[in-house]
Description:
By secondary structure, this protein is α+β, with helices and mostly antiparallel strands. The chain has helices spanning about 20-30, 35-45, 85-100, 115-125, 155-160; strands at about 1-5, 10, 45-55, 55-65, 70-75, 105-110, 125-140, 140-150. It has a single domain, classed as Aminopeptidase (3-Layer(aba) Sandwich). About 35% of the residues lie in helices and about 40% in strands.
Amino acid sequence: MSVVLTGYQFRVMQESDLNAVVQIEPTIYSHPWTRGNFNDSLKSRHEAWVLTQQGEIIGYALAVVILDEAELLNISVALPYQKQGLGRMVLMQMIDRAKSLGATTMFLEVRASNVAAIALYEHSGFVEVNARRGYYPVENGREDAVIMRRGYNRHDESRRRTT
Length: 163
């Protein structure tokens, strides 16, 4: 399955994509996912998708959907393609995909210091619901994770408009 997005293609991640994915990962994260992390997600049949442009992988996202809840596990856009709206495009595709699988809520965790990602998530309808103290490793210790949630049902949509 794939979705064509004006010059881009969003398609299911394959094991053959992992070389490209694991080359991108350490260029944007201080503590990147390993090939094993990605391979485990594929074997677990998580929702794993790549964004390509002219056949080149330039972004990817992984989520798990269990009953009516989804959790965004990883969302990434290669450095040369950042700040062009592609992260939002990938995020919305993952939201739509989870919704099509019956999810009514999506959760995610983001580094408290990742102001740009938090702004993207808030603009996309996510709200902060909690924090995990010392969740992410950093060079000299640990950093908090912000837990965010986005609902899909009409009740959530109407509540968001009135607050």
